Amino acid sequence: MEIGVIAVGGFAVNCYVVYEKGRGIVIDPGADAKTILAFTEQQGLEIEAIINTHGHFDHIGANGAIKNAFDAPLYIHWEDEPCLKDAKRNLSVWAGLEAMVSPPADYLLSGGEVLEVAGLRVEVLHTPGHSPGSICLSLGGVLFTGDTLFAGSVGRTDFPGASGEKLMDSLHNVIMPLPLETVVYPGHGPASRLEAEMKHNPFLRC
Ligand SMILES: [Zn+2]
Ligand SMILES: [Zn+2]
């Protein structure tokens, strides 16, 4: 399994392309579709799924372009699905940007699923807090955490629908029980390891 990291858009969202043997998935194509497509073309990839870790505008902005390029199905947690078509809920209006919407989802997730896509086995963990439908994706010892967990920090909980209490519950009861050697790939900023976060991230210390 290989992982391409492409920082996209004004908020530097990490768009991840996870692939193996010419097939792959795209996590959070937030913006800059051309850059993402240049990468998939360079690697000769067929993209078989698009998964949003949550519905904020900075993570969904290039859903349409990637979907059109590959006719790939779009996955999102049902509680963040309204963000796809509502520029207030996806915060693009809040950010002072042009109202942004995404094509509708093809599959709604609720957490606990194991998706078999592009030859990969992707486990979906529901980790509400930053948004009601935030998810983390676990595959091959790697955890894509969206805006739930960053290296040294966590996602904001001052947006409508966010909950600091739920975020702490997600961190302590869903993420922290994972193996310490888990590699963490967040929605913004550098990668980390769970062990390092449990030592140094103030939100993961009891
Ligand atoms: Zn967010
Ligand atoms: Zn974000």
SSE map:
Blueprint: E1 2-8, E2 13-20, E3 23-27, H1 33-42, E4 46-51, H2 57-60, H3 63-70, E5 74-77, E6 107-109, E7 114-117, E8 120-126, E9 135-139, E10 142-146, E11 149-150, E12 153-154, H4 164-175, E13 183-186, E14 192-193, H5 194-200
The structure holds zinc ion (2 copies).
The site of one zinc ion has 5 residues, from loops.
Describe the structure.
- The protein is of the alpha/beta class and 206 residues long.
- The protein has a single domain (2-204), classed as Metallo-beta-lactamase, Chain A (4-Layer Sandwich), CATH 3.60.15.10.
- It has 5 helices and 14 strands.
- It has helices at 33-42, 57-60, 63-70, 164-175, 194-200, and strands at residues 2-8, 13-20, 23-27, 46-51, 74-77, 107-109, 114-117, 120-126, 135-139, 142-146, 149-150, 153-154, 183-186, 192-193.
- The strands form 3 sheets. Strands 1-2-3-4-5-6 form a 6-stranded mixed β-sheet, with helices on one face. It has a 6-stranded mixed β-sheet with strand order 7-8-9-10-13-14.
- Strand 1 and strand 2 form a beta hairpin.
- The longest helix has 12 residues, at 164-175.
- The chain is globular.
- The model has no long low-confidence stretch (mean pLDDT 97).
- The structure holds zinc ion (2 copies).
- Residues 11, 13, 56, 58-59, 147, 187-188 line the site of one zinc ion.
